[in-house]
Design brief:
The protein is α+β, with helices and mostly antiparallel strands and 337 residues long. It has 8 helices and 15 strands. The chain has 2 domains: 190 residues, Fructose-1,6-Bisphosphatase, subunit A, domain 1 (Fructose-1,6-Bisphosphatase, Chain A, domain 1); 130 residues, D-Maltodextrin-Binding Protein, domain 2 (3-Layer(aba) Sandwich). Helices cover 29% and strands 23% of the residues. The strands form 3 sheets. Strands 4-3-5-6-7-8-9-10 form an 8-stranded mixed sheet, with helices on both faces. A 5-stranded mixed sheet has the order 12-11-13-15-14, with helices on both faces. The protein is globular. Bound molecules: 2,5-anhydro-1,6-di-O-phosphono-D-mannitol and magnesium ion. The site of 2,5-anhydro-1,6-di-O-phosphono-D-mannitol has 11 residues, from strand 5.
């Protein structure tokens, strides 16, 4: 059987949408090309001097690895020329990224984490690019975009997805019509459809959390995590702990096998008073994918996609995955301490 390429898949979907102008398909095609370049660099990273730290810190204060910087630069370089965006934001840059006046603009906004999980680069652990696409609310696209143009609720996302650079390179995306996954065939340089309309199991068998932070959590959060290892819990099954420490990889495994990923508030840790993960760059795009696959995502109380961002680099607690598992988390937070 002839495998469907991601380009064919995008074109088929474009035809089904009366709103489609082709701009959106071009946007995804440019992202795919950027990801292929990043994938190539990640695969050969051990060979050159590209590995290692730049010595600088990114907008969130993390030490920047060289590949993070490379991924950020390649994405900005390609996407600003694509003629489909009016602004971008990257986890690697503090402010809104404007499209230079010499390039044509389009109606879309790209929000991205160019290389998530970068602390794992040296150990050959899977890392990834997360992306999120919004439509600009501004009437006049010729002006520079303000922060307020970018601070949209996750529910406004037109599309979201990620690329994983692991044992193979995988792309997962949704435009609100199912979650579809593609695997890069390096021999032909094409992403080929490996699953369409993925639905995550309603209840999983995996919980994923950095349990070393136990003493940074309040009693309610400790009870949340305990629920997944309590043989007498009403969840009714034995869970396994799996934690890679690379969000895209942890999320992807749980999406396919079922389970819950948790990065709670560790309010006694002055470094990360609201947890570590960023609402716009990490939580919102994965929340859109989780919901589209039949799962859920919450900050413990509120639906992630309903949160109103106030800052570009805002952090949020995140509980995401199978519906029944995330509901259990919410129930415990609702009961309180
Ligand atoms: P990064 O964007 O700087 O790579 O940080 C995000 C990563 C996630 O991939 C992962 O889930 C988390 O940090 C792990 O954090 P911790 O080491 O505190 O468990
Ligand atoms: Mg990240």
């Amino acid at each position: 059987m002839h495998p469907i390429t991601v380009t064919e898949h995008l074109l088929l979907h474009q035809k089904k949408s009366p709103m489609a102008t082709g701009q959106f398909t071009s946007l995804l095609n440019e992202l795919i090309l950027s990801a292929k370049v990043i994938s190539r660099e990640v695969n050969k990273a051990g060979l050159g001097d590209i590995l290692g730290e730049t010595g600088e810190q990114n907008a969130s204060g993390d030490t920047v690895k060289r590949l993070d910087e490379f991924a950020h630069r390649i994405l900005v370089h390609r996407m600003e020329r694509a003629g489909v965006l009016c602004a971008m934001a990257s986890e690697e840059q503090a402010d809104v990224i404007q499209i230079p006046a010499k390039f044509p603009k389009g109606e879309y906004i790209l929000v991205m984490d160019p290389l998530d999980g970068s602390s794992n680069i040296e150990a050959n652990v899977s890392i990834g690019t997360i992306f999120s696409i919004y439509r600009s609310q501004a009437k006049d696209l010729d002006r520079d975009m303000d922060l307020s143009d970018l601070l949209q609720k996750g529910s406004e996302q037109v599309a979201a997805g990620y690329f994983i650079y692991g044992s193979s390179t995988v792309m997962v995306y949704t435009t609100g019509r199912g979650v579809h996954g593609f695997t890069l065939d390096p021999s032909v340089g094409e992403f080929l459809l490996s699953f369409s309309d993925v639905q995550t199991p309603d209840q999983g068998k995996i919980y994923s959390v950095n349990e070393a932070y136990w003493h940074y959590w309040d009693g309610t959060t400790q009870r949340v995590v305990s629920a997944f290892k309590d043989p007498n819990s009403d969840l009714g099954r034995l869970y396994s702990l799996r934690y890679i420490g690379s969000l895209v990889a942890d999320f992807h495994r749980n999406l396919l096998y079922g389970g819950v990923f948790m990065y709670p508030t560790d309010y006694r840790d002055p470094k990360n008073p609201k947890g570590k993960l960023r609402l716009l760059f990490e939580a919102a795009p994965l929340a859109k994918i989780a919901e589209e696959a039949g799962g859920m995502a919450t900050d413990g109380v509120n639906r992630i996609l309903d949160l109103d961002p106030r800052e570009l680099h805002q952090r949020t607690p995140l509980f995401i995955g199978s519906r029944r598992d995330v509901q259990k988390v919410k129930d415990i937070y609702e009961q309180g301490s």
